[in-house]
């Protein structure tokens, strides 16, 4: 939790946090559909398809963190995995995409699986 002095120097702006969350959500929704198409084309079934989704969604979040959040967080002198200044909660940042993009993933997965296997 930031101290009062840190908040005065670099205040947390709610509009920026909402923008960051919306940007990450849009990225995860788009990539979920792309991963669904890939899983369908590869012919993945059952647990392999779900594992494919979970691994690549976590990888996407990790890449987003590496290129967008970590450089600014480390420059500001915060912890390595501290996302509290840019997102509402760390749980939302790391696992939010698993649930928000799953419906799009499942739809495109079954669509492309049906198109390829038909």
From TrEMBL:
Query: What InterPro entries does UniProt report for this protein, alphabetically?
Result: Emc6 (IPR008504), EMC6-like (IPR029008)
Which keywords label this protein?
Endoplasmic reticulum, Membrane, Transmembrane, Transmembrane helix
Name any GO cellular component annotation.
Answer: EMC complex
One GO BP: protein folding in endoplasmic reticulum
Mark the transmembrane ranges: 27-44, 50-70, 91-116
Per the record, the domain of life is: Eukaryota
Q: Where in the cell is it found?
A: Endoplasmic reticulum membrane
Membrane-related topology note:
Multi-pass membrane protein
Q: Which PANTHER family match?
A: ER MEMBRANE PROTEIN COMPLEX SUBUNIT 6
Give the protein family: Belongs to the EMC6 family.
Under which name does UniProt file this protein?
ER membrane protein complex subunit 6
**What organism does this protein naturally occur in?**
Daldinia eschscholtzii
């Amino acid at each position: 939790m930031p101290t009062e002095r840190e908040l005065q120097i670099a205040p947390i702006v709610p509009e920026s946090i909402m923008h960051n969350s919306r940007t990450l959500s849009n990225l995860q929704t788009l990539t979920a559909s792309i991963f669904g198409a890939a899983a369908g084309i590869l012919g993945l079934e059952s647990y392999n398809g779900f594992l494919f989704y979970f691994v690549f969604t976590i990888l996407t979040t990790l890449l987003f963190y590496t290129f967008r959040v970590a450089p600014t967080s480390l420059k500001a002198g915060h912890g390595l995995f501290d996302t509290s200044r840019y997102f509402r909660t760390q749980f939302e940042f790391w696992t939010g995409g698993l649930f928000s993009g799953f419906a799009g993933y499942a739809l495109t997965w079954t669509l492309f699986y049906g198109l390829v296997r038909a």
